[in-house]
Amino acid sequence: MIIYAIPIPMLYLVWHNIVMSLTSRVFGLFSTATSDSTAPVGDSHTPTWTQPTTGGINDSYHTVHNDLALLEEEEPRPPYLHAMLAGGTGGTCGDMLMHSLDTVKTRQQGDPTFPPKYTSMGQSYSTIYRQEGFCRGLYGGVTPALLGSFPGTVIFFGVYEYTKRLMIDSGVNPSIAYLSGGFFADLAASVVYVPSEVLKTRLQLQGRHNNPHFDSGYNYRNMRDGFRQIVRLEGISALFHGYKATIFRDLPFSALQFAFYEKEQSMAKQWVGKRDIGLGLEILTAATAGGMAGVITCPMDVVKTRIQTQQNPPEPPSGASTAIPPPGTPRLDTSSVFTGLKMIYRTEGIAGWFRGVGPRGVWTSIQSGTMLVMYQYLLKQLEAYQIMEGSLLLDWLRPPVP
Question: Which intervals of the chain are annotated as region Disordered (predicted)?
Fold first, then answer.
């Protein structure tokens, strides 16, 4: 696991510089320009500053000072830009850190052979690493995963924060607001991440090109070749195969994850009082929320993986991506998620619904822990940077002492 942790500090330093640069340029774009008393409690009252004229220095100074005082009195909500950048960075780091375990889960769930080659998590991990290596084996499909992860999580956190705040300010129960926020956020982000998910899962299941150790039915040279073959042989709609199953998996997952997380965060803050809950509780609340949501939604994940990686009826007589699956692996009906669940249950029992539940539970726990802890940390860093800029501006606006 030490191998996976090495790039994270370097990645954070790069993104930290980018985030700070972007924030300084669009500082007032995503924050309210006024701080009137009719705003809901908890809203971010970040002032929008413009360079004052010479005659208005005193008025500008007092306006900025009052806005900063209001920021300190309230518990401000982060500006949307901060939430989106922090969430996108945290989500991408979590996905990249745990991609190898996601590959193990995909192999277990989508293995077309019968009996399956990949059984336990440890056996699958060591077999893939020994036979196919680290980059082409365990980290197969990492490029489409990266291309879908950052924009997807940026959209997710933007929509989540907007929906949650809108519902809470309208008097909706917070638990319902958290569930609804996760639901609508994932629905909005799905347009971006489902095509990348199709490419990712097929490349993960395939492993390296011309893989002599495992026949998945696919043989793409790389992501670009996979994209071309899917569009040419199966049509552009194939990039959205399993869209319904993905929605059935990810909408309840995100809703449950953030409902669990917000509730656990509230309980943790009540337990520690006015003190900061600390890194230990941050990790615990994030990891348990993701882990519980991942285990609960595992049956939907199995259906989604099978639909996205199974061989579709070939239109051409032959082709690299249209091999016929071996006997013993029935083709799932893509028109109904529940029909797919019934087919798996008839042939494999309850165990079929929870194939890969071990790596999925571990993956969602660590991925959620990484994403949400980094999200909170980056929000604090961005807030500190914003306050520092405000202080420098106050010094610049302060009237000279006669």
Answer: 307-331
CA-to-CA distance for 372 and 399, rounded, in angstroms? 42
Query: How many angstroms separate the CA atoms of 358 and 340, rounded?
Result: 21
Q: Is residue 41 part of a domain?
A: no
Q: Is the pLDDT of residue 56 over 90?
A: no
The answer to whether 371 touches 286, Cβ cutoff 8 Å, is yes
More confident residue, 286 or 48: 286
pTM greater than 0.70: no
Is pLDDT at 15 greater than 70 in this prediction?
A: no
Are 198 and 239 contacting, i.e. CB atoms less than 8 angstroms apart?
A: yes
Residues 6 or more apart whose Cβ sits within 8 Å of residue 192 = 148, 151, 152, 155
- The predicted model gives 187-208 an average pLDDT of 90
Q: Is residue 331 part of a domain?
A: yes
Domain assignment of residue 34, yes or no: no
Q: What is the CATH number of the domain that holds 181?
A: 1.50.40.10
* Segment among 256-265, 340-349, 386-395 with least mean pLDDT: 386-395
In this structure, the number of other CB atoms found within 10 A of the CB of residue 159 comes to: 21
Q: Where are the beta strands (DSSP E) in 137-229?
A: none
Residue 44: inside a domain: no
For residues 193 and 148, give the distance between their C-alpha atoms in angstroms, rounded to a whole number. 5
If pLDDT is split at 50, 70 and 90, which confidence band does 329 have?
low
Domain enclosing residue 193, as ranges: 96-368
